[in-house]
Queue: 2 jobs
Job 1
Amino acid sequence: MNNDWKSYQPLLVPAIPDLHDISVYEKNNGYQALKKILSDAKTWNPANVINEVKTANIRGRGGAGFNAGLKWSFMPEPDGKPRYLACNGDESEPGTFKDRKIFEFNPHQFIEGAIIAAYAMQIEVIYVYIRGEYRPFVQKLQRAIDQAYEKGYLGKNILKSKFSVEMYTHMGAGAYICGEESSLMESLEGKRGYPRVKPPFPAQRGLWGRPTTINNIETLANVPLVMNHGADWYLAIGPSTHPGPVLYGISGHVNRPGVYEYPAGMNIMTLINEVAGGVRGGKKLKALIPGGSSTPPLRADMLEGVTMDSDSLRQAGSMMGTAGMVVLDEDTDMVELIWRISYFYDHESCGQCTPCRDGTGWLEKTLRKIKDGNGEMRDLDLLLAICYRMEGRTICALADAAAWPVRYSIDRFRDEFEKKCKKTVYAVA
Amino acid sequence: MPEIFIDNKRYEFEEPGKVLQFMLDNGLDLPFFCYHPSLSIPANCRQCMVKAGMPVYDREKGTFEIDENGERVIRFFPKLMTACSLDLADGMVVLTHHTDELVKQAQADNLEFILINHPLDCPICDQAGECPLQILTYKYGPEGSRFEHKKVHKPKAIQLGPRVILDAERCINCTRCVRFTDEISKTHQLTIISRGDKNYPMTAHGQIFDDPYSLNTVDICPVGALTSADFRFKARVWEMNQTPSIDISNGKGCSTWMWTRDNLVMRVTPRFNEAVNDHWMPDAGRLAYRRFNENRISKPQLRLDDAEQVRTSWNNAQLTLLEELEKISAGDILVIGSAHASVEDNYALRTFFSNKGVSEFRFLPHIIPGSGDGYLISDDQAPNTNGVRALGFQETDEKTLIKLIKSTKPKMIVILDDDLLGRTSLTPDHLSGAWTIVFGTNHDETTRTANLVVPVTTAAEHAASYVNVDGRIQRTVPAKETLYTNRRLNLEMSMGRLDHYGTKFDNWVTDANRVDCISAWEFFIRLEHDGDAPKWESSRQIMEEIAGLFSTFRQVSYDRMDEENGIQLKLEQDTEVKPA
């Protein structure tokens, strides 16, 4: 990965006009992967498709970075009863805005990927869960789905094979937590979006108690690439530990914010300075939130040589998340920023588990106190204590997501927090 | 047999299950709020966290890995696990707050979290004294709180339904109430609204929480968020005595606790009985406690000529009955037993009048078809229909009874505790031709018509057995005193909380609340002055006698009923009286 990123041709959202239209998509090699599989069902039996995807090591793009093919292989053998694929397009993490690009510009690639996934896992029903705020994109996706039905890529006996699959869209009602896979299922079932206790895992008991796999939209859009070009070709894009194209959502204090598609493992400074046009107003970079608001912020001096892939970011002390990068310049008030993030998590905690329900509120209130200039030095220790008490003690990861930004910011920007705190001296009796 | 090690002690388990329930079954302590043995497991309170691990299995050698000390190598789960949702596994190692500092800390932390938004209004909260949050905070909680902000404010004193009031601020969001309406009563009337620390249980907009089982949510609420509209602010738990009893308001006979103070029944709550009602009971049964306190007949009442009823002495009541009996022959007496009265009282009635030569005994079942729900509310409105049947009382419907009265013109009608005039088409005119004696607990139309009213004890005052719709015989224990109860002598009387910890009697007793009544069987032994009289000294003895006479009641005894929480009878057996 040197400078060849400049010659990189986008694969997920290629610059082809009207690609969202099925005829344009078909002309550009669209639905070839599906045709290839269905026309040669002997070579491409479900197990082989799963193996190919597993070999390609598509790391889940929803944040956890789990090998998608491996996830598919957890599905039990079919028993004749329903099983489901749920596609997660809830995309509600602040700083993340990549799936909308796929819905808007290349919905068929996602649809094709979802159909292949359904074929591989012998699933007959696909649900696409999309955040309700994405109404225009849902309409675009719906048009694409209708077209796919018309052309026989969806529905009964796809391309005259024995394979049938239905695809439904479902709009969320604005809860962040419904992007968590198990509460997404609860929400799909028409219930309150409460994350479920695992085990049982979705592959054992998912939607309506039946085996279910949940994949991110971007993850599924990668599947046709693997099937068209083979796992080896895919592995060669970016680092093999985290291969493939990635939609980098760059926002914050940069000159050209936006979604950029490049191979995984891009150098962070290249992304900020060259892809996104550098920090706005020629200011100095202060910090970066690499993968959505829940990932620990990195100080500018920690970014040296760090690339956008799971391993490199873990070493640097953060996470890949959704690759929704928030760039922060030197004028950023970290206390204000972290308070705002905490405010978000306080608002979005579903309220199921005690440490998260009450911890997020406590964090927010304490940070607000510091932000308003009423903080005391001991509040910083308290914040850290609350974070440690929330992490890993809840059903889902929202408590972790809420605690990490606070904990790591205090770790990495402690002087800024201290500056806002009163130097109260308590008399020791 | 599979084994599990809890705090370094080995336990064996047979059935698959969850760690928390296994620990509770084995008498081990672990704090929890959201878990309830009869509901699904949401693991949302996060209070029962333990450290758990599995021994490392060496597949190649086929044995567990052993460390240098000869102990199994344990691989602990990276996070603390909630014991309520953790499956028992062979070889599992569980460390609780007794052996692990992190677990102890986590439990205290969790309570600190719960308490930051919980109003600490225990002094005015109804739940205080029986509040899991209060108890567990004392036992496992932090010493204080570091929370120095304003607590979240939520609506208070919301009337969710006719019987349940919500204080949303106290709610710790365990979702027990929601799960109850979803899984047990299946009315789905409650849900959690809003998010995060602002959420609380609520009905759908404009709906009322009129679930016939709504008060069970009050019982299972681990804090004072849901309170009973009826019991609210009436009594503190520590002032009340708690007596095991059964629900006599319908045929199911749910096991209950009767809570008394000052010789009044303050409330009735369900008592766990796997065979009948699990942890639940219908609201109607709880609110039926009023009949034990209000509108009671105290002292016998006698009608002189056609005048008003007047209070009279027990002696006079007895003499009057004996005089009336002398005037007539056995064939002129119509004896009507009662499904509302106990097995013992019906048996005593039957014994007394068979000795007088009466051979036919009747009773009118109190069944309203369609009023039940197939769960804990039965069509049968009376607690002892099967018991009366098994004693050989002839089931009679009201039309037949009226016909019978018209045709045979009995000179004396004996009615055991049953408001026949109030609940059937029987009118005072039908009874006017006869001298009527009614054994009653509460004033009703029937007692008002009677020539002689004998006040008898209710289920709250006597030890007596009832056979429910499924043929299960269960008994009550006296919870409140009558005028004649001597706690020191009446060994059937329950031992109260205060009896255990303080005096030998309930020091909250107010004499004014004692009712002047006796059990029906006691009235009959007082009537007999000759040597043939039954020599019963207690209802316990009567049951022994019944057990010897009726094959249905064979093997039934108070001790067995107490031990086994009721006994299932085989009702299809013949119920003929054996020749003595």
Job 2
Amino acid sequence: MVEQFNQPQRQSAVGIVILFFDTIQKWGRALWPVLLVYVVRFDDSNKVYIFSGIGVFLIVTAVVAYLKYLNFTFYLQDENEEFIISEGIFNKTKTIIQLDKIQQVDINQSLIQRFIGVYELNVDTAGSAKKEGRIKAISHPLALALKARLLADEKKTSILSDEQTIVQEKSVEKESIVKISFLSLLKVGITSNYVKTLGLILAFFTTLYEQSKSFIADADFDKEQFDAYVEQRSVISSIVFFFILMFALVLIINLARVVYKYFDYKVAKQNSSLLLSFGLLSTKNTIVKPEKVQIVTVTRNYFQKKMNILEIKIRQATSSDKENSKTVIEIPGCNETEKEAVFKLLFQKIPVKGIVLKPNYRKLVFSIFLSMLLPVVAFFAFAKYIQPLFYDYTYAVVLYLLFVGLIVYFGFQNNRLYINDDFIIKQSGAWDIDNRIIEPSKIQAITTSQLFWHKKANIGSIIIHTAGGNLTFQLGDFSTIKHYVNLWLYKVETSNDNWM
Amino acid sequence: MENFSNETIDTTQLPKFEEVEFTVLHADYWKVTLLNVFFFFLLAGAGLGVLLFLNRGLLVFAVGILAAYFIFLFLVLLLSRISYKKKGFAFRTHDVLFRHGIIATNTIVIPYNRIQHVALHEGLVSRYFGLAKIEVFTAGGSSSDLEVPGIAIDQAENIKQLLMGKIQKQL
């Protein structure tokens, strides 16, 4: 018998139990502090209150679960090829999903669902990680039938073509395009991720210190002897020693990490996809399909420029697939020619930086205000009114201003948006300079934004949304931005480019 | 082949999104906002009252608390009013626009061929006034989704129908 879904139908009636537990879970999470207070104060006098309270809570939940069940319906509208879910007791939501936008339908069963013998059916479209449609209680045959209907026609062909490509892949020769040498990895190790590794080391030592403190306190430790020992060494030499030690540690850990993670990094071309394999102990394999790529980032700092290496990060369309979501694929230590080879595969051509948009000077002023003026004012205010000892550390303020000043200045200098016909490139960063590259056809939506006091100066901001993240450029010339927004909209709306 | 032509496009002649006339939200939507603010402050006021009742020591600050309460209420009303006035939407042949913001003017544009799915939401208060909210979802994550509140329900249904039709045409 072919199941018909063209009439709005409810979930399995036993599904009320699922909704009941679901609601208890949701409310329980919000109400547990209240419950805790009552349990702590538990004595005979309020016993009645507690039990009647819990009783009322359970009854209300049951009623709500029943109403949720009554108000939740789903159906397929055949003529428009739509799947429609209506839900909500007081606040009603109707979600309409077109059948050929559905990427994935999965059928799951949690412990409670297994107990009462129902299944959960989730409908997922491209993009956002959350499930767009969720039916919490449905019988297995019905779930299977619905899944088949939801994935009718369109998907079958795509699955078939996927299988075909797999078969083909076996017979196609792999063509190696990038092989990252051990030397390049060493270069990467000594030129990147200082801050990250330093943070890790500091975190490690702090925990070690915390542990040892309790240990030292326990042991019969002669504090005076220790102090005398410390005094013997001059403070300055120990500070220098400490810094050298730290720096050496950072370098060694960096090197070890990079070599461990990326040893024997190979990029090969297979059909039109990129095949990556890397790793010291266990080799990781990843396939990158160019049409799924949304944002490509090229990162390089001053040292890396001198050594002719750079890092490429590839961000693909995020989907419900846990494997894919949030994973950024990194290719460390490429040189210029290897970069071009990768880009040719991903974009068919080398991205060129077109006309340049610079941020208005107000952006610099604002950064200075936020990260230099405010902290310094806070520091001196604290020193003046609360802790005068802070005045002794004024030299630290000078150091801070110098350091942050440099970061702010170079950050502003490097903040650029390059636009040409085929690419939009956002450059940013103070030390590690990022170039984020997107193609206009990958645009999902565009937001422009202008503060009312910037109207006269004719400056404003733009956010370009893609399925792999956003690209933001602030305080640029607003007429130019609007002009390009119109152009990009025209491009997106007149072509049916596949963005994934 | 003869019919094929490929003329240069004058990009300055492209339709300008910044010159689109925006439709303002339904007048009843302001009432919905007012009612929501009112309920919120009623609850907050009740909470404050209970607190003052249980903790008499705080009564010394009663005037201050009351003043803060009303200043806060006034600010929320003012900002809601500005926000309501600024909100506007427009449906063009190929995309949907929504304008919002209080101190900034934000305009989000979603081309129809990037829409993944659409939802109609009716809040409790909104439903009383016959208003609905249209939600448009893309693959770009929550920051690129669009919500147009304060549309009469039958109009919202029409818009939904229009959007679904537009999505289909692109395939």
